[in-house]
Amino acid sequence: MVYQAFYRVYRPQSFAEMSGQQHVKQTLQNALLHNKTTHAYLFSGPRGTGKTSAAKVFAKALNCENGPAKEPCNECPTCISITEGSNTDVIEFDAASNSRVEEMRDIIEKVRFAPSNARFKVYIIDEVHMLSNSAFNALLKTLEEPPSHVVFILATTEPHKLPLTIISRCQRFDFKPITPADITNRMKTVLADTGIESDESALKVIAQAASGGMRDALSMLDQVVSFSGDKITIEDALLVTGSIGEDIFHQLAEALLGKDAGMVLTLLDRLIAEGKDVSRLAEDLITFFRDLLLLRTAPSLKDLLELIPGDERFVEMAQRFEMDTLYLFIDILAKTQQEMRFSNHAKVYIESAFLKMIHLDSPVQVSGGNHAIDPGLTQKVADLERTIMELQQQMSSGGMNKQTAADQSAQPRKNASKSSQGFKVPTGKIHEVLKSATKQDIQTIREEWAGMMQTMQRSHAALLEETEPVAASENAFVLKFKYEIHCLMASENPSLRSGLSDALRSRTGKAYEVVYVPEEGWLSVRGDFIRKNGLAKQQEPESSDEGVPGEEMLSFVKEAEQENADPIVTEAEKIFGKDFIEVHDD
């Protein structure tokens, strides 16, 4: 007789033999007992979780000569023929290879015929998500209102690909991944039937590698049996499945604790040389650190461990890792696993991940407590305490009054603003203009300013909208900007500078050079110039030592006096005249 794989020989033939899926079995059995079966079912879930097996068992229970019953007898001719696949009333249809609408129409045409030797005609459509849109449309009406003797069972691993109109016409059952414990128990049953001995740890390795799929587990078990012979050992299971043993995990963890990069990379290279898949290695490492985290936080829940045993060796190791470190390890490996999916250099990614884990800054344990403190945070606290002490000393010495504090707090903001904007006030050029400034030149520019703005480009005029000429000599003038950012933008625009000079030349006949300055910078430079040249104390027009024209007080000096004058005094002088006003300072 031709050898058959374990997953074919030991396919469940009753609900009792099915592993897991208790919610599915109980619902279907209750419907059979109370004669409340419906016309369409949808079985969805990961591969190898029993969808097709459950469909066949349900078909046998529906048509069993001793039923409908919660379990098929597997002894009557109907049950035997369904098990052998020879019953013409139970039709298995593979949608992956028969996805066209023509095959679906052939089924629909035969639906109306009564079953030949069974109670119901059962159509089991596997991988139903592979059907074309036209095939789904052809099936739609029949699926909604089939003849009373027909039952449809749709099986799929990707239910999101099904049209909602199909899903809404079915009772949906979601099959869940089978737990490692259920997989291990099923493998024990298979090995006991075949007379093969095995280690408990070897079966756990196979169950973990199966990732919740019974078919995958039985296929790997079949492969391990072929490799090892009469007895399955953990070494054989690790070699065949490509998994990692607990000793290697322990050595890797020790190397990470000791920050031994050489040992970590050596162990990694050995695993890859033995044929371990890098992506699988990252997945197993995530599970390993998850197990350590479980031992660190809940040592009593050892039944939830997936990769490592809960013996004293790993319990002690879990206590040596900080919880934050384990969290970071899992995050690094999870990101690495995602990045490896899109690269041909998976080994480089896993090596980089290990080096990141080695060079993580470990928190410092506080003596006499269980709280970890970040060294960087400790330094920040020390700096803050030192700053507070300095401020307290200054306040106690009385050397800092409110005004000084306000000036000191405002000055950094001022400097920060200048540094962030990057504009440097051209103090030397402004002083040169002020030394030879005349009232006639500034009046000429101001009179022509409005007309000149209308002749310039719109973008240039918009940038100069909130500007004012404040001082002018025979060949240059100072243009004050209200906002520093606009001043910076104008200084970086050569076409604006040339356009402004050309526009003034066409209206005044002179080629003026323009000097840009923000309002804040202008007030500072002007005040400094007035103080240096003693212009604020001049009562009669006369020449200063610095060569400033003395025919009349310059316009920028008058403007400065007006800005510094008390507005109440100025208004009183307008009403009563300067001769009748005398100001007394309290």
Provide a concise account of the structure shown.
Keywords: ATP-binding, DNA replication, DNA-directed DNA polymerase, Metal-binding, Nucleotide-binding, Nucleotidyltransferase, Transferase, Zinc. About 55% of the residues lie in helices and about 10% in strands.
What does this structure look like?
With 586 residues, the chain is of the alpha/beta class. It folds into 4 domains: 6-176, P-loop containing nucleotide triphosphate hydrolases (Rossmann fold, 3-Layer(aba) Sandwich), CATH 3.40.50.300; 181-241, Helicase, Ruva Protein, domain 3; 246-361, Zinc Finger, Delta Prime, domain 3 (Up-down Bundle), CATH 1.20.272.10; 427-576, 2-Layer Sandwich (GMP Synthetase, Chain A, domain 3). The protein contains 27 helices and 12 strands. It has helices at 6-9, 22-33, 51-63, 77-84, 101-111, 133-144, 164-167, 180-194, 200-210, 214-228, 234-241, 246-257, 261-273, 278-297, 312-320, 323-340, 346-358, 375-397, 402-421, 427-435, 439-455, 458-463, 484-491, 494-508, 519-533, 555-564, 567-576, and strands at residues 40-44, 90-94, 121-126, 150-156, 171-174, 197-198, 231-232, 364-365, 372-373, 467-472, 476-481, 513-518. Strands 2-3-4-1-5 form a 5-stranded parallel sheet, with helices on one face. A 3-stranded mixed sheet has the order 10-11-12, sandwiched between helices. Helix 6 links the parallel strand 3 (121-126) and strand 4 (150-156). Helix 3 (51-63) runs antiparallel to helix 4, helix 9 crosses helix 10 and helix 16 (323-340) runs antiparallel to helix 17. The protein is elongated and about 130 Å long. The N and C termini lie far apart (122 Å). Residues 395-422 have a biased composition (Polar residues). It comes from Sporosarcina psychrophila. Its EC number is 2.7.7.7. Keywords: ATP-binding, DNA replication, DNA-directed DNA polymerase, Metal-binding, Nucleotide-binding, Nucleotidyltransferase, Transferase, Zinc.
